Amino acid sequence: MKLFYHLLGYLLLGMILLIGIDEYLNFRAEVEQFETDMVTNALQTGNSISGMIAHTWQESGEIKSLELIEDASKSGMIRIRWVWADNFPNDAIVATGDKEQLEKLNLRKTTTLKIHDPSGETLLYTYIPVNIGQERNGALELRQTFSALQIYSGRMWVRAITITAVLVLVCGVILYFFIHRKIRIPLNRLTKQAKRIGQGDLRGNHTVIGTDELADLAKTMNDMCSSLVIAKEKIKFEYDARLKTLDQLRHTERLSTFGLISAGIAHEIGTPLNVVDGRAKMIICDDLDAEETKKCAAIIKNQAERMTLIIRQLLDFTRRPEQHIASENIVMLIKQIFQLLHPMSSKQHVTFALNKDEEAEVVLSVDGSQIQQVMINLLINSVQAMPDGGTVSVSVTNEFLAGLQSENQTPQRFLKIRIVDEGEGICKEVLEHIFTPFFTTKTISTGTGLGLSIAHGIIEEHGGWIDVESSVLNGACFSVYLPIKENE
Asked: Which DSSP state fits 321?
């Protein structure tokens, strides 16, 4: 987990920074204390021998005093020599840049300076004035090197780095196991639960326990899963209710269409009924010979079969069908619809024309009854749009298009059913609401406003869509697109 390693890295970096600052401040304090001890040691040494040098100078002379100074210098870590104020700092062996500092030095009071020798090494000089009872003033010069301080500093650095490394290692191990157990493992479990929820598995996760924030998050996610289960059941119930309502609306629209069709079929059935009635009366009169009676019976049989076929088509259309996807020949389906609508269309002097592309694939896996309902609604609208008669042209072709209902915009093959009438067309204001449920421009007795909206929904369920175009001069044009699967 990237977050886990980022958190651990930042914590360790903060620890290293804090421990490093602490060790650096301790190191500076130790160095300052060491320098203070060097100055104190030099002052104590100088003060202890200055009185002895002054007494020896007055009792035994200069030579004996200088010998005593030389012996004291050899016996300790501090180099001691005698300097005269009137000859100072000409005889001082120091770097050129520090001589100006020595020239300003007053040897009549104790002074401590950091001076560099010609090689660049830093030295600690301490000057202690000595009263030798002469007019000529002098002082003891105590020189100490910082080599011991450098050795001490090296040891301090090693100690600081070692302590920092040990503390970081120990704290890092403790933090690793703590974060791994308290953060990483619970987060992994919550992440897996989130993935399961995304895949539809709404079971709760009871493996994260405790009283910390992650446990609260796990509890919240469990509560969310429970809420989602309830919401899922509610959505399923509403979805089933919606499907039931939609099915009822479709059936209602079929019954409404049946009423329009039956009005035209009533006349279509009237003719064969008259023929049957007339032939039956001829047989009853008993004025016919056997051959004529047989001929009348055959005519009655043919007309009865014709009426039976018409009634069976009506019953098939009004029956509430179960959804069933099967291979259907769309052209044959359209021809059957032409026969069913023939009484209505002939009454308004409207003819149907079917044009099929020779190479077009017309066998699709669809729900035949639903496609039948779509085509009947569209063709009835075309017939009703031409009260003075005309021709409804239906063409069936194949086209390669990018599906509007699919995220994949790769072109695929569609069956295109184009229905063109010669009516007055559809105005722009109506065209915008043409697929809106219960929107209609027809009278109450001729339309419910559900036909086109239901047709639109059926075609979308089959993965296609409906386009509509209108022209005042050329009538309306509806294009139905149905996808053709490769295995079809």
From this structure: P
Which of 86-95, 178-187, 459-468 is the least confident region? Answer: 86-95
Check: pTM over 0.90? Answer yes or no.
Answer: no
Cis ω before 118 (30° cut-off from 0): no
CATH match of 206-320 with 3.40.50.1820: no
Please report, as a single letter, which amino acid is at residue 91: D
Q: Rounded CA gap, 403 and 392, in Å?
A: 27
Residue 217 one-letter amino acid: L
Q: Measured between alpha carbons, how far is 108 from 128 in angstroms, rounded to an integer?
A: 8
Confidence at residue 449, expressed as pLDDT on a 0 to 100 scale = 53
d(CA 124, CA 144): 5
User: Residues 217-250: pLDDT tens digits?
Assistant: 777 777 788 888 888 888 888 888 877 776 776 6
Helix ranges restricted to H, 143-212 = 147-179, 185-198
- pLDDT tens digits, residue range 13-30? 887 888 788 878 887 888
Structural domain 2-153, CATH architecture: 2-Layer Sandwich (3.30)
Closest to 178 measured CA to CA, from 8, 31, 37: 8
Residue partners of 401: CB distance under 8 A and separation at least 6: 411, 412, 414, 481
DSSP character at residue 348: T
Residues 6+ apart with CB under 8 A from 360: 396, 397, 398, 415
pLDDT score at 481: 92
CATH class entry, domain 324-488: alpha beta
Q: Under a CB-based contact definition with an 8 Å cutoff, are residues 33 and 149 in contact?
A: no
